[in-house]
Amino acid sequence: MFDKILVANRGEIAVRVMKTAKKMGIKTVAIYSDADANSMHVQMADEAVNVGPPPTNQSYLVMPNILNAIKKTGAQAVHPGYGFLSENFHFVKALDELGISFIGPNEYAMHAMGDKIESKIIAKEAGVSTIPGFNGVCADADHAVKIARDIGYPVMVKASAGGGGKGMRIAYTDAEVKDAFRLSAAEAKSSFGDDRLLVEKFIEHPRHIEIQLIGDQHGNVYYLPERECSIQRRNQKVIEEAPSPHIDPATRKAMGEQAVALARRVGYYSAGTCEFLVDPQRNFYFLEMNTRLQVEHPITEYITGLDLVECMIRVAAGEKLKLSQDSVAVPHGWAFESRVYAEDPEKYLPSIGRLSKYIEPHGVAHEVRCDSGVREGSDISVYYDPLICKLCTNGSDRVEAMNNMSKALDSYVIKGVTHNIPLLHDVINHPRFRAGKLSTGFLKEEYPNGFKGHALTEPELRELASLAAYIHARRELRNREWKAGGGAFAEKASSTKCWEFAVGVKGYDESVKVGVSLVNECTYQVTIDGETSTVTSDWALETPLLHAQLSSLSTPTTIQYLAAQPLGYKLQFHGTQYDVTVQTPSQAVLSKYMKPKATLDLSNSIVSPMPGTVVSVSVKAGDVVAEGSEVAVVEAMKMQNVLRAPRVGKVAKVLVAQGANVQADEVRNE
């Protein structure tokens, strides 16, 4: 067994690998860029080596720097995590030449399976069901158009190397294929250093389901229960579950056996994943093989009891896996993973900043797991993926696991950056999701105009109004105690224990009239429209989490107290943040006469919706543009985002140039 392992990655996956290594008594070495000098994975490691400036192509992707770190520290093996160099066979070859063990597959298997074009050919030879497409690399955009026409629209244009949804675009027309080719090639080059692209038929209304493999160097390969990864945005997974509600035992066995046959074909060992698209009739088509540990591996660990990182380390050390196919083929319980991103959940645009408040949820019996690489005070940088945490829950069945996820999301406190918890919470509780009727088009179909936040039902509005009124009454009593203690306002202190409030929620027309009265220290009586209930809570004033039991509900409620505002509060309820006003009846009447502040008119401007780097500017002053014309491309967190003209017009000014760094909402063109 190894004495020291270098983890060639950063963030949560580096922390995840180090936890298992430490459990096994193995020392760890971290690598880090200048931006990550104070990161959690650096502080967790026994040793750490700087590998360059923040940009990935100057640090985490620079092979000589990482090889020097290995030599410097005497590490005997390297775990690549996922992304970066994890599927770079040149890296594996370089390690082999140094006599360093790679905790992953061998060079040949990675080369064969890591290339989506080559892997598809091999899959066909191994008898694996594949998607119709062109078995080769697209020479240029015109070649891609010809292939698309031959296959028939819609098509998927995607990078031959890498994964994670980068370098992938769906196209329905010739023009979209040309755009997809240009943008996907640029993303692939930036993320993987390889801009080769392929084109294949896009299967409509598919489910994205994958088979986890684990094999050793003694010829044993096993398939584990499937994971469903159909909830995606920009071809990147958002919510995963294991097993899939769509797959029956016969289909699981067939998919698993095909995946094993493919792995055996190339002598594959270590952890790997075969991804499939599955149609409503459970016909499945091989998509690609990821020759690394998947982001979503924790949910497989939940339902199998295996530590996949430990399995990988033992396999790399030459040990034989002590498993049997029958012992790992059947799932035990159910598990979900929600990828918590620093991003706007409406437009999926990344957010950067410092985590000014950060509290991860916890379970009572291992039903909640947080794989993260951040803590309060950590910075979310423009240089890297915006993933904050992989929040996982499990249960004895799907309903219990979903309910545990919903409760965990309610208790997850994040301040300082915009995050996607509102979307995750809404999806987990969506009737269609609860029914297991999923497809990769779920988000686009259910939120065609983007996710705007949870839409409160009438009972939920009353529940939020009750809790807001409770908060206000609690704070009023606290303020009264301060007054009673002396000072300028002492003579104005009131002894009332009953209040009347008008509670309004921004975006909802009518305010709710709420009567509140103190029953005892932990219980308040709340009356709305003649209906009375009680709110019982031991909330500590000004703390972010408020757990309460309303007598009108069968289950407890959790809301987040985010901030006090001039006329109320910012509260998070059902995952979404609401601006709630709590006023006396006379205040509510007078507030109707307050004129709203005028907003800045940006109707004649194009602004950058996210911070990033300008990759290209397609217009100049004086140009006439049509609606939808490309104006510029901004790269943020390795994704290329096209800014388009909102309408026909003439360009008056171009305020940025190629290579410039821009901030969110910065005016780019007028």
Percentage of residues in strands: 25-35%
User: In terms of structural class, how would the helical and strand content be classed?
Assistant: alpha+beta
Radius of gyration: 27 Å
Biggest sheet: strands, sense, closure? 9 strands, antiparallel
The overall strand count is: 39
- What is the averaged pLDDT score? 92
* Unreliable spans: 487-491
Q: What overall form do the CA principal axes indicate?
A: globular
How much helical structure, as a percent, in the residues?
25-40%
The helix tally amounts to: 18
Q: Kindly report how far apart the N and C termini lie.
A: 63 Å
Topology, pairings included?
Elements: E1 4-7, H1 11-23, E2 27-33, H2 40-44, E3 47-52, H3 63-73, E4 77-79, H4 89-98, E5 101-102, H5 107-114, H6 116-125, H7 141-151, E6 155-159, E7 168-171, H8 174-192, E8 197-201, E9 207-215, E10 221-223, E11 227-233, E12 236-242, H9 249-265, E13 270-278, E14 284-290, H10 297-304, H11 308-316, H12 325-328, E15 334-341, E16 343-344, E17 349-350, E18 353-354, E19 357-359, E20 368-372, E21 379-380, E22 387-395, H13 398-410, E23 413-415, H14 421-428, H15 431-434, H16 442-446, H17 458-484, E24 498-505, E25 512-520, E26 523-528, E27 531-536, E28 545-550, E29 557-565, E30 568-573, E31 576-583, H18 585-591, E32 606-608, E33 612-617, E34 624-625, E35 630-636, E36 639-644, E37 649-650, E38 661-662, E39 666-669
Parallel strand pairs: 1-2, 1-4, 2-3, 4-5
Antiparallel strand pairs: 6-7, 6-8, 9-10, 9-11, 9-13, 11-12, 12-15, 13-14, 15-22, 16-17, 18-21, 19-23, 20-22, 24-25, 24-31, 25-26, 26-27, 27-28, 28-29, 29-30, 30-31, 32-39, 33-35, 33-38, 34-37, 35-36
Helix pairs in contact: 4-5, 7-8, 13-14
